[in-house]
Structure formats: C-alpha cells, structure tokens
Design goal:
The complex is a heterodimer of chains A (about 375) and B (about 190). Chain A is an all-alpha fold and about 375 residues long. Helix content of chain A is about 60%, strand content about 0%. Chain B is globular. Chain B has one domain. Classes of the chains: A mainly alpha (about 375), B mainly alpha (about 190).
Amino acid sequence: MPEFTLSPNILVVPFLITLVLIELVISKVMGRSVYNFQDSITSINIGIMSQFVNATGAVISAFMYAIIEMKFGTFEWDLTNPLTWIFALVLYDLLYYWVHRTGHEVNMFWASHITHHSSDEFNLSTALRQASTGFYFKWIFYMPLAVLGIPVQVFVVVGLIDLLYQVWVHTRLVGRLGWIEYVLVTPSNHRVHHGKNDYCIDKNYGGMFCAWDRIFGTYADEREEEPIVYGLKKKLNSWNPVWSNLHYWASMFEKARRQNNWRDKLMCFFAPPAWSPDGDSAPRPLADIPVTASVFVEETPALVKISGLAMTGISATLLVFYLGTKQHMPGIVQIFCATTAVSAFGLLGYFWTQGNKDKKELEL
Amino acid sequence: MSTLAITDALLLLVTLSIAVSAKQSPSIRIAAGLFASAAVLGVLRFSGLLPLPTLHSFFSGLGATSAFPLLAASFLFSTSVVATQWRFASIFAVIAGAIGLVASALEVGLWGNAVALISVATLVLRSIFARDGLAVVGAVSLLAALLLFALGISLASFLQPGDSLHLFMSLGLLLLGKRGQTPILTQAPALSS
C-alpha cells in the first residue's frame, strides 16, 4: 500500500462537494430550482477529471515557474511580511485577468476554457467544471511573478486563494452586495460573465478584484430587467466529461481544415472565437442564433441517477487516493493513472449520455 | 560610468522613439518596446544607478527570442495581421517569448542567438531582394551587431563587445524604423517575375 500524504488540495475536494450540497439544500429550502441533476453530476465529474490531469499538468507550470524564478528572479521577498503576500495576490489576480481574457478572446485558448462555460446552469457545481487542457498555456502569463522573484510557494498559495475565492461567486442565490460590487468580484458580477445575452459577452473577466475590468473596459453590471441565460450559444448536448473538453478542439480543427489558405487556417486558431473567413470577428447576436434543442430526457431514470452518483462517488474517492499517493509515484505512473482516469470518464460519460437521451427525440 | 551605459542609452533613445511613434506598425512598436525595456535596464545596470542584472538578462533574452522575429515578420509580411494589428502582434510576441522561456528552462542556450541570427539574416535577404538600400544597411547593421557581440569583438580599445551590439543595433533599428514607416514589401518587385 503506497504511503498517503495529506495535502491542502486533497481537503479541497470534499470541501467543494460539501459546498455544492449545502447550496442544493438551501435552494430547496428557498424553493428555487438552480440545479439539474445530470448537469451537476457532469460538472463534478469534469472537475474530478481535471484534477487527475492537472495534478500532473500543474507540475509543468510549477517547474517552469521555479526554473524562471531561479534564473531570473530579481528581488528578495520577506515572506514574514504580509505585504509580500498581498502584493503577490493582487499581481496574481491582474495576471489571472489576462489569462482569463485570453481564454475567451483567442480561439485556441477558448477551446480549453469553453469547458467551464458549457453548463446551461449556474451554481456552485459549475465552479467545479474546470478544463483539463488549460495547463499548456496558462503558465506563460504568470512569468512576471517569477521574474520579480516571488517564490514558488507564494505563487502556489496565492493561486489557490484566488481559485478558491472564485468558487462562491458561482451562485444565483446571492443578490447584489452594495459597495462590495465596486471592489470584489461578486456572484452578480460573475453571473454576467457566464451569460450568453449580448450584453454579457466578453465581460467581467476578473478573478478576485473587479478593478481590472473597470480599468480595461470589460466591466458590465447585471441588468435586472434582462434575465441572464446561461451556457453556450451552441448547446453541448453531452454529459461526457471528455467530450466537453474536446468538442471545441474538434470543431476548431475541422474549421481550419475547411479553409483554403494558410492565413485563414491560422486565423481559426488565433483569431477571436467568432471569426469567420469574411473577416468578421464580432460575436453574433443571440437572437440570430438558432436555438439548439436539448436531446435529453427531462426526468432522469432512477437507474441512471444511481449510476451517476456511483460514478461520481467512486471517482472522487479515487481522486483523493491518487492525490495523496502521487508524490511517491514515478512520473510515468502518474501519467498512466491520469490517462486511465480520462479513459474511464470517457467511456462512462458515453454510456451515461446515451442513457439520458430522449429516445423519442432520437426516433424523430 | 561604463561606456555600456552610454551606448545602451543611445539604443534606448532610438528604440523608444520607434515604440512611441504612431507612424510605425504595431508589430514594430512592440518589438522596439521590448528592446527599449532591455535598454533601460541596461542603462540602470551599467551606470550603477540600479543594477538589476537578472532582469536585464531576462529582457535581453526576450529581445532575442521575441522582438527580433517580430521585427522580421513585420518586414517580411508587412500586410499580415501580425504586422498590422496589435492583437496578433502581441500573440506572436507572447508565443515567441514563451518558446524562448521553455528553451531557457531546458538549457538550450543557443536558442536565443539562433532565433535572432536567423531573423536578422532573413531581414538582410528580404532587403536585398527588395533592392532597398536603406533597409539593407539597417539589416546588415543588425547582423553586424549580433556577430560582433557573439565573437566578442570591440570596435575600439576603450569599448566593450556589448558596445558594438548597442551601437550597431541603434543604427540598424534607426534605419529600419525609417523604412518601417513605408513598408519595403510594397516597393518590392514580385519575386516570381
């Protein structure tokens, strides 16, 4: 039996799932319907799968950060001084703003980040719906911290604080928060970010502080008179965690393949997501986009529900075990474990998607 | 005060004037901005005012791996989106810089030198094909800057190899900056004819 080491990221898993359950209970008490069973189970599964992948992928970021900090780190920082941590957190959040903005405005980065936006719901489980493919580019944006000499442990801690802060803003149960709306990213502020209404597109990229959006002109207030519609303009229609990570990559490569010249092929990767060969990059108004019908049954059969819960329970347990023991595994074994987890999620996700499909819809 | 501080100040003046000039294309302005960042850190370092050698080295590396290719792309593909739009010029610079950082992390020490040399050599060839005298002198100056620095050759006994780099880069960028305002591609005869 491999040795189990308890680390903060292990505690995060049950903590986040507990938060989801608390929000579910509160929403029931309030008589609000903010959860869809299949959607939430899929969000949690996507989150668990991303942890399997990113536990290894994050090593790349940390490795690059540590090397650059060691080679080019300019200043010494007193880790006992709270100002060091505050400065690092604020700068991290500024860099996060640009990571996030690039994730929306450059197509090949959107191909990763789209996973987080693929839910038609907006609740705490949506916060867990994180991409498994984002680690390949995000590290680039945090290099200024390394060059300033911020130690890797500070980078990891402020990164975790910034990430955990962003969980609670994924809720419809909290209204506007007065003066806080001018300082911090809030649920109201972040609901706009997840909306597909025209006024919501490419707005509110901030992670913790909304000042960046106000400074760089991407801030939008929530409009009470226009209820927000969540999700993608083209519905994903899949409960498969692997497909939710790969569907946009597939369509992006297919779009590039169809182009007649190299310029347009490259534009498919580096232009904004709405780019078309006629040169137009403006997002299409929501009203002009045909509504994609859901292919799923509204009421999930009991057996499918049980299988979904079992899949999530087992994979969460395996994730905790993996995170606690991976430090003692060779890199190749870690990659094998992550690959096995992704394959299992792909297979189970396929069957679960099929099990949830509306057969009448298919016959039509 | 070291002569390096004075020659770096000259480079700073030239690159800054290009970076703030609205007549230049976005890609040339970004490339010049990266060179200017390295130059200002060089002035601070070699004058002894605020020596930050690792930061200077970092921005010099970015200049080699990111600014030189961006400069080359600006002239080779002067009507492309990389040359004409801030967005794509920035993406190009970030990706080229990121590749440079990976090379640095993997201890591929020659990467920066090779990228800078290939970029400048391409600029020289393009200027010759375009029969543009001013651009040829500018590109050859950049090539001379890189070669003299790599070979550790000083122009005079009181100068250092770093001075050769700064002086020839200043001359080269000044001339290419003049050309950048009227892209040489538009003046070039079609290569296929």
